Amino acid sequence: MNYTEILNKIAETEGLGQEALDIIKAKMNGYVNDRKAAQQKLEETKTVLSTIAKTAGISEEELQQNSDKLKTILDQKLEELKAAKQSIEAKTKELDETKGKLEQVTAAAGKQSMVYTAAEAAGANYHVLTKLVGNEKLEIKEGKVMVTVGGGDSVISKELRDYAQETDAWKPFVPALFPTPVGKIPTGSSGTGTSQSTLREKLLAKKLNGFGINKNA
Fold it and tell me: What single DSSP character describes residue 13?
C-alpha cells in the first residue's frame, strides 16, 4: 500500500473527520518534504566533496579517507580542549580560593594595624586590646579612639575607655587594658630613674659649692 492508498483508506474511515484527515496529510507532507530536503542536502554535500577532490587532484575515496583522518584529529583536539577547559576551571577555582585567603590575611593585617594605632592613641595595652577586639570596629575620630558595634539602626559608637568600662565582657580587663602609669617619685624619697638622678646632681652641686666650685661654670 503506497502513500495515496493510505490516505484514501483514512478518508473512507467513518468518524475520522476531514479536519483530522487534513492534519494527517500535513504531517505526512512534512515528513516527505523533510526527506527531500535531507536528500538534497546530501547531494549538495557530495557535489562539494567531488569539487574539492577534483581541485585537489585526488579521488573521492582519498578525500573520504582524509576526511575520516581529519575527523579523528578533530575529535582528539576536542578532547584536549575539554581537558584544557577542566584544567583552567580547576586553576580558576584554586586562584579564587587563594584570593579569598589573601583577602582574609589582608583584612586581618589591616585590623591588627588599626588595633595597634588605636592602642597607641588611647594609651592602651596593645596585647590586651588585641585579645578583646572581636566584631568591634575601631576608628580614630577627632583624636579620639572610638569603638563601633552593630549595624543599621542599632549602631553604637563609644570612646574606647567608656566602651571597655561599660561592656561586661571587657570590664574585668580594664585595669590591664589601661594600666595605671607610675608617678614621679618626689625628691628626697627613695626611688629610681629621673628623681634619683636629680637628687644626685643637687648633692654634687652642693658639695662643689662647698669647695668654692660652681658646677655650671
Answer: S
Specify the number of domains making up the chain: 1
Give, to the nearest 10 degrees, the angle between helix 3-12 and helix 18-56: 170
How much is the pLDDT for 159?
A: 92
Low-confidence ranges of the chain (pLDDT < 50): 189-193, 215, 217
In a domain, 113, yes or no: yes
Tell me, rounded to whole angstroms, the distance of Cα 127 from its chain centroid.
Answer: 30
Cα–Cα distance measured from residue 97 to residue 106, given in angstroms and rounded to the nearest whole number: 14
The answer to whether residue 200 sits within a structural domain is: no
Give Cβ neighbours of residue 157 (< 8 Å, ≥ 6 apart). 146, 147, 148, 149
The answer as to whether 17 is a domain residue is no
* Residue among 187, 166, 164 at smallest CA distance from 176: 164
Per-residue pLDDT reduced to its tens digit, 148-194: 988 777 888 899 999 999 988 999 999 999 888 765 555 554 444 45
According to the model, what pLDDT value does residue 198 have? 63
> What is the pLDDT at residue 1?
53
Does any domain span residue 66? yes
pLDDT at 215 (0 to 100): 47
Neighbours of 169 (CB within 10 A): 9
Cell numbers given for 49 = 566533496
* Structural domain span for residue 138: 60-180
Rounded (to 5) percent helix, strand, coil in the chain: 70, 5, 25
Cell of 93: 577555582
